[in-house]
Automatic annotation (TrEMBL):
Hydrolase keyword on record: yes
Database matches in InterPro entries: NAGPA
Keyword match Hydrolase: yes
Domain Phosphodiester glycosidase residues, every copy: 381-540
Keywords carried by this UniProt record: Glycosidase, Hydrolase
PANTHER family assigned to the protein according to its UniProt record, in alphabetical order: N-ACETYLGLUCOSAMINE-1-PHOSPHODIESTER ALPHA-N-ACETYLGLUCOSAMINIDASE
Name of the protein described by the UniProt record: Phosphodiester glycosidase family protein
GO MF terms held by the record: hydrolase activity, acting on glycosyl bonds
């Protein structure tokens, strides 16, 4: 359904169809046949010991804690020198290392043909240590000798054969659950971050899990800005990354409805009083910086590229109450709108107070002239926003009970693993994209993909089973001897094993956190403790 709304109405409610308010609960609970598989988890050899614990949290909500495998002395710590993409590069590493009294070896990553051809491999000192300190000391010496990419690696995290262990938390929310499920912003506004545990405690949630990717610091954009689609109470608070997925949580006909949408596009058009239309670039963020790229007007590429900042000096950004009481400051022009979408002020710099119910439109670069030429005080502006699934070519209907979180890559869709084309489209390919700065060359990109996609890391995942049971899963990682983590292909296999038909990876790494009754269930992998995130998924009794 196309939606044409006066911008302030769009901002405050985004009611696109008749619906109940957010306090309503699903009616006529459905039956659920889902159960935790009796077979052992597909991690390591089947003979590994596995401990399971089930905790009933509420009617229709269960937590499962799984500890599988053990820490083997076959795993240990190694000093890594760098990444080679061919034997010539390896020979250079080897020659230099021999001069220092060491021998070098190749560590070949697990197969990942999904993300494109991978000819790269890790180069390491040919020694394994039980003590991390020993490997750290060698890494320090290597760095002094000019090996700037030297680092310590724990072999159980390589994505290759290991005995684990793995620490897994599963939160199952059945269709019979009559409570509420929604996403929420950290600190309740875009410019700000908050730990999942703090957000859960502050809102009184029964359970919570961290949600999607977000901007970490100002070099990437607005800290706390969601790096992908975000919908809260039917309000689009952040535009999507072109081509990426999002998980939607709706209430339809009194029933909870969860659906995974892939290859999304957010189309935002501003129409002036004279009927002139201009496409805007996004919502509630610093103009000019697009974390994870995926904006059709970015200079470097219009494609998604994970953990890369793309740029565009000519942007139009809509600011809503979800950004808070002050808009982003900088050069450009800004138009202030009241609740009816009527222009109250045209400011020749960016940065205004945003009274309750008001919104604004900022422009930079060559869009400044367009604003000045086509918009005047007292004019009424309209915003037309469409969410389009480019795979199905269908517009998505949303209402005030719609919530959505970003993530990626897609792990399962209709029970099928995604194609290599889709993985690359979502931003996880090996090859450098034409036009992207040389700082993201093939060698660096391969290093990143090997580490992010094929090595084992902490993960948070959301999935849905055939009967509508929602599965929220966390796997601890980067915790040697405690939990090995998973590679991205292993997360897909895990969700398939659990019975998910649709599944998407949420933000992982140091963001990974599940909270139950205000108590963290995961071991944070960041040295400083639990990470402050951009948003989280909350479950209320």
């Amino acid at each position: 359904m196309n939606k044409t709304l006066i911008v302030s109405i769009f901002i405050s409610t985004l009611i696109l169809s008749a619906c109940n308010n957010d306090n309503s609960n699903p009616s006529e609970p459905l039956a659920s046949n889902w159960s935790l598989p009796e077979d052992k988890f597909p991690l390591g050899e089947k003979i590994l010991i596995e401990n399971r614990q089930k905790i009933d949290l509420a009617q229709g909500v269960e937590q499962y804690k799984i500890i599988r495998g053990y820490s083997s002395l076959q795993d240990g710590f190694e000093a890594e020198i760098g990444l080679a993409t061919n034997d010539t590069e390896f020979a250079k590493f080897e020659t230099a290392i021999i001069k220092l009294g060491y021998s070098a070896k190749k560590v070949i990553p697990a197969d990942n043909s999904q993300a494109g051809k991978n000819t790269s491999y890790w180069v390491r000192i040919d020694s394994r240590f039980t003590s991390k300190t020993t490997a750290d000391d060698i890494v320090k010496l290597l760095k002094k000798d000019g090996f700037n990419e030297a680092r310590t690696r724990y072999t159980a995290e390589d994505g290759l054969t290991t005995t684990g262990p793995w620490v897994i938390n599963i939160l199952a929310v059945r269709p019979s659950f009559t409570g509420k499920l929604r996403s929420a912003l950290g600190t309740d506004i875009i410019p700000g971050k908050e730990t999942t545990t703090s957000l859960a405690k502050r809102t009184g949630a029964l359970a919570a899990i961290n949600a999607g990717f977000f901007v970490v610091n100002e070099t990437m954009g607005t800290p706390g800005d969601l790096a992908g689609l975000g919908i809260i109470n039917g309000r689009i608070v952040s535009e999507g990354v072109e081509g990426r997925p999002a998980m939607f949580f709706d209430i339809e006909n009194g029933q909870r409805h969860t659906h995974l949408e892939t290859n999304l596009s957010t189309i935002i058009n501003i129409t002036t009083q004279q009927g002139i239309t201009k496409r805007a670039d996004g919502f509630n963020r610093t103009p000019g910086k697009n974390f994870n790229c995926g904006n059709p007007f970015d200079i470097e590429t219009s494609l998604a590229l994970h953990d890369v900042v793309c740029t565009d000096p000519n942007e139009i950004i809509v600011f809503t109450q979800d950004f808070g009481s002050k808009t982003d400051i900088g050069t450009g022009v800004e138009v202030l709108l009241n609740e009816q979408g009527v222009v109250q002020k045209i400011n020749l710099t960016r940065g205004l107070d945003l009274p309750k119910g008001y919104s604004s439109i900022q422009a930079t670069g060559n869009n400044v002239d367009w604003i000045i030429k086509n918009i005047q005080l007292g004019h009424t502006l309209k915003v037309n926003t469409r969410l389009v699934n480019q795979d199905t070519q269908k517009d998505l209907n949303i209402n005030e009970q719609t919530y959505a979180v970003n993530g990626g890559p897609t792990l399962l869709m209709n029970g099928v693993f995604p194609s290599g084309k889709q993985i690359i489209q979502e931003g996880w390919g090996y090859d450098n994209i034409v036009g992207v700065p040389t700082t993201y060359n093939n060698a660096n990109r391969a290093y990143f993909i090997n580490d992010w996609y094929l090595r084992r890391n902490p993960h948070a995942i959301v999935g849905k089973t055939q009967d509508g049971t929602l599965l929220f899963v966390t796997v601890d990682g980067r915790a040697p001897r405690y939990s090995a983590g998973l590679s991205v292909p292993e997360t897909a296999q895990l969700m398939k094993f659990l019975g998910a038909v649709d599944a998407m990876k949420l933000d992982g790494g140091g963001s990974t956190m599940m909270t139950i009754n205000g108590i963290p269930q995961n071991l944070p992998s960041d040295a400083v403790g639990e990470r402050e995130d951009g948003d989280a998924i909350l479950i209320f009794k």
